[in-house]
Amino acid sequence: MFFYSVLGLCTQYLSSKYIYKHSLIIQARQLKIAYTAINKIGLYTNWLLFCVILFEMLKRLLYLFIFLPFIAQSQDLGVDDRIVYTNQIIDPNVETVLLTKVSEPSDPVPLINLQSKEQLQLTFDVLKSTHEFFQYTLIHCNANWEPSDLTQNEYLSGTYQGNITDIKSSTNTYQKYVSYKCLFPNSDMAITRSGNYILKVYRDFDQEALILVRRFMVIDSKLIVTAQVNSATDVRFRFSKQEVDFWVDYKNYLIPNPFIDVKATVIQNYNLSTSITNLKPNFVNNGQLVYNYEEGNLFYGGNEYRFFDIRSLRFFSMNVADKFIDSMKNAVLKPDQTRAHLAYYNQFDYNGRRAIQNKDGLKIVEDGDYALVHFFLKADHEISPNGVYIYGELSDWQMKEKFRMKYDAAKGMYYKAVKLKQSHYNYEYVSPSDSGNVPEHTFTEGDHFETENDYDVFIYHKNQSYNYDELIGYLHLNTNTNKK
Predict the structure, then answer these.
(1) Cα separation of 353 and 424, whole Å?
(2) Are residues 281 and 182 in the same domain?
(3) What digits encode the pLDDT tens for the residues 263-289?
(4) Do 266 and 358 sit in the same domain of this protein?
(5) N vs C: which end of the chain shows fewer Cβ within 10 Å?
(6) Same structural domain for residues 361 and 389?
(7) Could you tell me if 229 and 455 are in contact, meaning their C-beta atoms sit under 8 angstroms apart?
(8) Of the candidates 19, 46, 75, which is a domain's last residue?
(9) Residue 484 domain flag
(10) What DSSP string describes 263-312?
(11) Are residues 103 and 199 in the same domain?
């Protein structure tokens, strides 16, 4: 009996998730210690039992050598942190990446409820005429978009890798491309924990061969969140910034230490580069967390977005001056002017988003062509030494080099040509801040407290049992309605 007790303890230890989180060397040392301990109690005298123990240990070592690298790889993202934890397109041939809820494709926030039938839809184009084999996997992250301590078997049920099989080639287009689509979670890969997630897409079953990364969230709603958006309380920013105050009712949910275990994130127009993270409540009052800051929750109001419409490349389009065809289709936009010196003017927009559609073909996806879109921004002098960028969902909300404009002093004009798919686009012009990380539109678009913007509030709580950040509260808010 004693032998089976010792062997059972060793086996239980070896199969614990300690194996999954420590190096192969440490595991081998633990096996050696266990083997030595068994020898010391005299079990080596029984050759049959000795062979059983030896076989068990060799089996465990074989498991470590064969399967542990794959388990480690499931959490090893394979590229540097900057690429992995943000929305990124790694392959230069990949264009028009969209991740939306299947039931609400116009909603830019990729958020689904835990233990529901809701699905997300990923679509993207590869500017090649040949089909490729792509796979995807999911990585659980903490509130700061760093990989959590959970292993994949703790937040996924079923397989850990999916194949992208919905593939369509473009038809009747100058630019040849292949469109890919996948829906998840599904019956083969179900999500069992709430929180932040990264979707990785790679080719030929090689997770090192990443082509794109997308963020999405899964919520297990347990709280009631209310909020208001007003002009800034601080008089220095009253006419240029918007203040997002919110309250979290947790009377029906146990939070032992809200100042430590709760984190809040606020995002404007689902622009992740300007989000405010790790907000802590400044008051706790009778089961309610109060987030009523004067500086910590301020966003620049910006201006209403500019737009152009290239859903048709044959007929007249709004804000398009000319269209022509050479090696591909071209759309020349009307020259823009800076608006920083102008008073606020209210106009309808999509808050920086795009609507992928085309009016020239029967099929929205396959018949949509790509056009080289020519942007012009008038300026008597260079606006910023850090450069001027075309910015919005069309640039993945990032200041990418392919969207950086070049200044022509002789013409008094910034210029850039960018390849874009047929769509209705919102955009603006920005310059990097002195730190280089934050887009600023103070000298190109202006900032106004009256500007209509969308805000999303996310509430995270540290799960004490499994030590991960679960997403338990969410609210969408628009400045015009101050409600969802």
Answers:
(1) 9
(2) no
(3) 999 999 999 999 999 999 999 998 999
(4) no
(5) N
(6) yes
(7) yes
(8) 75
(9) no
(10) EEEEEETT-GGG-EEEE--SEE-SSEEEE--SSTTEEE---PPEEEE-S-
(11) yes
DSSP reduced 3-state for 34: helix
Domain that residue 71 falls in: 2-75
In a domain, 307, yes or no: no
Across the chain, mean pLDDT equals 86
Residue 357 has pLDDT above 90, yes or no: no
Report the percentage of the chain scoring pLDDT > 90. Answer: 74
In a domain, 401, yes or no: yes
Q: What is the pLDDT of residues 296-355, one digit of tens each?
A: 999 999 999 999 999 999 998 999 999 999 989 999 999 999 999 999 999 999 999 999
pTM: 0.82
Residue 316's CB: how many other CB atoms inside 10 A?
8
What distance in Å separates the CA atoms of residue 351 and residue 365, rounded to the nearest whole number?
23
Token pair listed for 353: 């988003």
Please, how many CA atoms are within 13 Å of residue 419, restricted to the half-sphere of its CB?
18
Residues 238 and 349 in one domain: no
Listed in sequence order, the DSSP H helices in 348-461 are none
> Residues 327-340: pLDDT tens digits?
899 999 999 999 99
Residues 201 and 257 in one domain: no
Convert the pLDDT of each residue in 220-276 to its tens digit. Answer: 999 999 999 999 999 999 999 999 999 999 998 999 999 999 999 999 999 999 999
Give dist(CA 69, CA 76) in Å, integer.
Answer: 10
- The total of structural domains in the chain comes to 4
Q: Write down the pLDDT at residue 44.
A: 42
- CATH number, domain of 277, equals 2.60.40.150
Q: Who contacts 163 (Cβ-Cβ below 8 Å, separation ≥6)?
A: 133, 134, 135
78, 213 Cβ separation under 8 angstroms: no
Residues 6+ apart with CB under 8 A from 235: none
Bond preceding residue 185 cis, omega within 30 of 0: yes
CATH number of 130's domain: 2.60.40.10
pLDDT of residue 56: 56
362 lies in the same domain as 270: no
Q: Which of 29, 53, 75 is the last residue of a domain?
A: 75
SS3 assignment, position 90: coil
pLDDT tier at 480, thresholds 50, 70, 90: confident
C-alpha of 481 from chain center: 26
pLDDT tens column, 405-445 = 999 999 999 999 999 999 999 999 999 998 777 999 999 99
Residues 227-233: contacts with CB under 8 Å, at least 24 apart: 227/455, 227/457, 227/475, 227/477, 227/482, 228/482, 229/453, 229/455, 229/477, 229/479, 229/482, 231/449, 232/294, 232/298, 232/449, 233/294
